[in-house]
Model the fold of this input.
Amino acid sequence: MKKTAFLLLTICLTVFICASVSGAQAGEASCTREALSKITDQYFESIQAHNTSGLPLSSTAKFTENGIVKEVGKGFWETAGKPLLKRTLIDTQKCTTATIAVIEEPFSSKTVGTGMGGGFGGGAAPGGAKPPAGAPKTFAGAKKPPAGQTGDGNVAALFAGPTELPKEGTVRPILFANRLKVENGKITEIETIIARERDFAFNPQKVLETKDQDWDTILPPEKRAPRKVLANAADNYFALFAEGSTASVPFAKVCDRWENGFLTTGMDHDCSPVTFIKRMGSSMNHGPRRVWVDTEKGISIAFMAFLGGDSVSEQSPTGAGLMDCHMFRVRDGEVDLIHSIVGPRAASMGWPLEPIE
Done:
């Protein structure tokens, strides 16, 4: 009897261990670069087709658009068109992908950005977004950029969007960012940021003009920055906006940054926030960051609420602000390119915080 019981127990344990190992192996298989790339492609095919049927979705998948929880398949999923440019980060350690993109969409006055008037969020005039109250008219010590470059030291230029809106139904490019979390081959989290007319410095055409930048090459092992270096670059970048910050980021001597298509470094190719806040004449307190890393491509990305630091609470751990993500490229240990997608203001990004690393 004891032998029979022992045999049954052994069989049960063996089955349990095999099932656990099989599940772990399945999870690992779904987090390879190839598997995550395939799921990312499926996602973009899904939003362009306005159809979720072919997407490997978890039954509990959560979806947010500009900080607002929506039903999967709704919102931009119903209006998205053809992608014109995509840059994708694949974090195999966190089983997450993040993409910034330019995508076609028919114009609708119902979905146009809310702008930044009245202190970052809402009430913008049709002529485009306005700088926040109290912002200086020009950067301190600003110099006129070389011919053909954007940025004349005028702060208002940073916040201005298009002066005219397209006609209803006109297909035009918009700016888009998304993050996909995958578990056991199923998408469990979908976070998106969308910038349209009247949103911060909206200029998708200028992003398209950067199409020749290389964000996709897999670097040889000896050229790859450590994961922590990439993560710290994305996190510490925003810390540098705070007054008296002791954070540091290794910027290349020639570094350029595009904010929704606006080249903010046209005057001096200096990506340091320290330089920026000196010109602005004031510091900034951004919300806590959530960071993902692609060591093979040498890029990292941070999602956060722009100017959300002062509004962080238990109800809104990310703070309230402009929905924002910045993607950083690191070459030879230094940040040399930055692109951001900045959407409208929201009370929260709609996601809990998680460890940077």
About this structure: The domain at 25-346 is CATH 3.10.450.50 (Nuclear Transport Factor 2; Chain: A,).
